Amino acid sequence: MPSNLKGALSALIAFAIFATHDVIVKSLGGTYSAFQIVFFSVLLGFPFVTVMLMRDATHGTLRPVHPWWMMVRTLSSVVTGASAFYAFAHLPLAQVYAILFATPLMITVLAIPVLGERVRLRRWLAVFVGLGGVLIVLRPQGADLGVGHLAALTAAVGGALSSIIVRKIGQVERSVVLLLYPMMGNFIVMGCIMPFTYIPMAAADFGAVAVIAFLAFIAMTFQIYAYRMGEAVIVAPMQYSQIIWASIFGYFIFNETLDRGTIIGAAVIIGSGIYILMRESSSNASKNTPVLRTRSRVGLPGGLRVGAMIRRSDQARGDQSGKDAAN
Length: 327
Fold this sequence. Notes:
By secondary structure, this protein is an all-alpha fold. The chain is 74% helix and 0% strand.
């Protein structure tokens, strides 16, 4: 089987698992606050992240090289996770995905001040067309916009900001720092909010939160394998398959149906995002390729960053190869 096909199939599996993850979030969101779900999903996600970090042999401390950038990234991760979970709980799945799909557009814009990226006319046009798609989904004159819509938009912007910061400092910061700071930020902030929002959880619901943490870990594992096997320009568009799962799960589980505005808007946003990916993959079109190098899915409250884990694992393999060669 060609490596690109393996990468694409692995990515499709990863995003199918992520969609299942979001179904559970939505189911629990009808009873518990997003803050409580985030708190326990991060708490139960620590063992999985610990296992992944046990092989991190890079030297250094847990003190970030760029503390201010790390602080901004941590805050954006906290806001993104809570906002995404709230949006999934209060909006139709397909509508949330359609808005989150605008993240590559936000990354393209933020790459200008943060990375010094030069965005030419064609990518600017793609950004504006994609933002027009967001307006089609939101339909500000034809539907009541609520906190859920604002939360989804906030998650898209926060996820883009977090990804851009990782793109800027990821080469010098240790993977353990990039992973643990957002998780600790979520744990502390949500823990402080918990006394005001906590509702005692049934054993089955607590088990469901554990499943959320486990599914995030499994999906990320498939994502890492996908990006190792296939080219980013092939693997990255597979995220848009989530809209298919949202339609299936939404219809059969939550009695949701896709309306015309969401379908048209999602198509416009997806088309714009794919165009930006293709432009970044072409020679001399982008110095930083910020969208292509954004490999983690928006909406995970923990610090699970696929790119950081790929770099850590590749470095470990490189060090092992060097030892083998020396022997």
